[in-house]
Design goal:
Layout lengths: L1 H9 L7 H19 L11 H25 L2 H5 L10 H30 L1 H6 L7 H43 L2 H7 L18 H5 L3 E3 H5 L20 E4 L6 E3 H10 L12
Antiparallel strand pairs: 1-2, 2-3
Length: 274
Amino acid sequence: MLQQVWCNIARGHVQVSCHDVILAFSLVHSRLDIVRKWDAFSQCSKPLHVWLLVSYAAMLAFRAAHQAGQCSSTTDSIDLGLPHLRRRDASWFFTRVTWFLILPFFAAWTLLRTSWSLSNLDATLTCLPAGIHSWFIFFWQVLCYVWIATYSVFVSVTCQYEKSLDAMEKDHHRVAETEDALRRWGQVPFLPDCACLKSQGLSRCEIQSLPRVFFSAVAGKSRPRQDCAICLMEFQPQDLCRQLPGCGHLFHESCIDLWLLRRGDCPLCKNRIQ
């Protein structure tokens, strides 16, 4: 894991912004200032200096874990807007540590400071040593809540994306591994659409509800197209097909099922399947 991180650092995959540098410098400077005035905090009924030190350390750990995860990722995974929790490389480890260890601890620690403020607000305002302003502590606390809320929203969106991705992958394998699909297309890999959080296609249950008929039954009633517009193979009387509602276009069942998993419209006329 560490070898992969250092290799990516050497290849220049690490992108540390000036904001990270300013944040790190500010927090380190603040930590040193608190250490110099450690004894002056003894007048406070609550260990505010300990809370501030741990809070600064947790914020630095946030950014360090993020950068470490970026270092351990490949170029392709860095380009993705949302990480894949199913990945089992070093970036997966750092993502888990950030989201499910550092974030809950940071949130609990910030709530603890809030409870101290509400229980003894007047004493908090008067016990601070010279050079440590009460407005800065409250501003930092608000900033912590904004940070927690932002990360929580991102974690929620990513988990929802992964849940949707898992459902799409299961539907894909069920459709792509039928006997007819394997005969026509072979092994079709699952290629997730990372540009959207929700599939633009239909679910497997919705696809299964569409009418399916043998081509011989349809050919006897009308004069449909003689080949499938997806695989370009001629229909055989025993071929199992789907006739799309609304437009009535006919396709091999295995062909149109794979299409509808990705897009919920007709390949020919683009009529949306209801």
